[in-house]
Predict the 3D structure of the following.
Amino acid sequence: MRPLRDERTEQGFTHKQVEALMPYGRDLSLQTGDFLFDETAIVDSFYVVLEGEISISRLDGAGETSVDTHGTGEFTGGLAVLTGKTSIHRARATTPSHVLEIDSETFRRVAVELPDMADVFISGLASRMRYTQRAYRQQEKLAALGKLSAGLAHELNNPAAAARRASEDLGTAVLEAQLAALVHDARFSEEERQALFAMQRETASGAAPLDPLLLSDAEDELADWLDEHGIDEPWDLGPTLAAAGVDAERLEQLVSVLGDGSLEVGLVWLAKTIELVELATEVATSAGRISELVGAMKDYTYMDRAAAGEVDVVRGLENTLTILGHKMKGVSVWREYREDLPKVRGNGGELNQVWTNLIDNAADAVDGRGNIIIKASGEGDLIVVEVVDDGPGIPPEARRRVFEPFYTTKEVGAGTGLGLDVVRRIVVAHAGEVLVRSEPGETRFTVRLPVGTTQNGG
């Protein structure tokens, strides 16, 4: 029999107390997935987990919400026994388990004959109700936020797509206007216009981006060249031309065509045309990024799709990385995905909450200066996802408590302490397991999910 979890001692019996209860009940053997009770029948017994794990969940519309998980020494069914009503929850074994069943009449006798047990039951039930109320409040806030996010995603999608189309059209219109202006500019001969047109086409084809040091050198070289040729404000034109891939050698070719009076006017026209087209491109890129984020959000939340179904784990990880892109600045993210991974059966939106919490914690751990490795592989009939960071690690005293509800090592206001508890609940609801191993320089969270397993109630 495994020891009680420290964070739940007030909600369970000690090993000695469980032994004292054994004569009052009978040992039930449950296989993974077996129901202990559900919301359709009156609960007429009190149950104590002897071995294994029992998941408590509640139907919520067409879906099902994981509420709690009881391990060795913990009890369930107590409130329903006291009220004599049907339970609003369902209890199901998530691993092969043994449960002590004490019928309601005998349970009342236990309270008289073993008052210490009654104290444990009452204090544990009160603690559980406090926890449940806090968890429900948190879920209500998250549900409200989810509805707001869904509405915002729909509202953003149309204007973002319209902005992208308009900015692309704007780029074309700006270029056409600039070319038309040059055609009617009497300061240039036809040969000079053709030379400027040719250079503009070259810059429009796109130059390979230079690293910052090489770009700085190119800007200085162009500014010196422009200054030597009597161009006013060479330090304004140089950066624009250099970024577009224009160099001194190409300008020398242009000088051979443009006269002294046309050179500066022609280079100003070229630089301004490049700037206008680049601004329109930047707007199109930014609008496209908004559309990409909205699309990732819709995939991430499984908006407009059934909650349970076939889930592509790798796609979920990638959508999560897109959503958390703002937290990854300065962080090196390494992906190790096995090709052709089978899909898992479950709730895609909930699994994405798992990836979000794990990756978000890893990003906090490295604090913008380290490495995060995301792995997805197969292990027999399991999909294995690992999130590894090279941060300072989890202190030994905190390591055994990381999955405890409301426990957090973050500063006040920086964390709710529910993230890893949510991870554990969701993974267990999908008949999986989550493990952590940590030391200075490497923290590894491992999630194992069975292929083709239906989530509770799915």
